[in-house]
Amino acid sequence: MNAKQKMRHILDTLAEMFPDAHCELRHSNPFELTIAVLLSAQCTDETVNKVTVSLFEKYKQPEDYLAVPLEELEQDIRRIGLFRSKASNIQKLCRIVIDKYGGEVPSKHEQLVELPGVGRKTANVVVSNAFGVPAIAVDTHVERVSKRLALAKPDDTVLEVEKKLMKLVPMDEWTLTHHRLIFFGRYHCKAQNPQCPICPLLDLCKEGQKRMKPGIEKKTKNKAMKPKIANEG
């Protein structure tokens, strides 16, 4: 099986396992999504969603974040890791969005990455989920899964992983593949205790094969039991 065939097999398998994969950060518009993804750096989506329930009730638009002292915003997001720097970046971002973009989050990737606290991954998530532009955002789950399945090399950078996935995955499947790789990594191929015994992609994963003790048969060959989705980051 060549690289394209291997990727097709992986994509089809992920589609069977997670047909409804989606962005789990709760939001109702591009601005809220941008704030949520900014907050999610080094933090679980579950925690972010708990914080944004009240945050998005209090702050509806960029002007609202600038109408309070920085210390107040810090307290509103204090359950989030790195809350002080994130609060500062949110206010700086809101000022730029108001002054440069008329209060609307820009839709172009090159504009988004210039905003404080917005990196390449955040920009990819926003353009793909808020504006329908195909993109593959490489977070910790996508990176881990890609390397375990030998879609990328162990020492590849996040950008190199992204480029390799973009080359292997059809463009019209980029966004959905991003979500499915995240679901696979979050709920099945976990960093600790991955579900190797029931993994339908075990034959492609050298790390998984090493984890399996000699003599133990793979419990499933073609299909895995659909994992129960738990509250994890």
Structure report:
With about 230 residues, this protein is mainly alpha-helical. It is elongated and about 60 Å long. The protein has a domain at about 5-20 and about 140-195: Helix-hairpin-Helix base-excision DNA repair enzymes (C-terminal) (Endonuclease Iii, domain 2, Orthogonal Bundle). The chain is built from twelve helices and no strands. Helix 1 packs across helix 11, helix 2 (about 30-40) packs antiparallel against helix 8 (about 120-130) and helix 5 crosses helix 6. It has helices at about 5-15, 30-40, 45-60, 60-65, 70-75, 85-100, 110, 120-130, 140-150, 160-170, 175-185, 205-210.
What's the arrangement of secondary structure elements?
Layout: H1 3-17, H2 30-39, H3 45-58, H4 62-66, H5 70-76, H6 83-101, H7 109-112, H8 120-130, H9 140-148, H10 158-168, H11 174-187, H12 206-211
Helix pairs in contact: 1-11, 2-8, 5-6, 9-11
Produce a short descriptive summary.
This protein is mainly alpha-helical and 233 residues long. The protein is built from 12 helices and no strands.
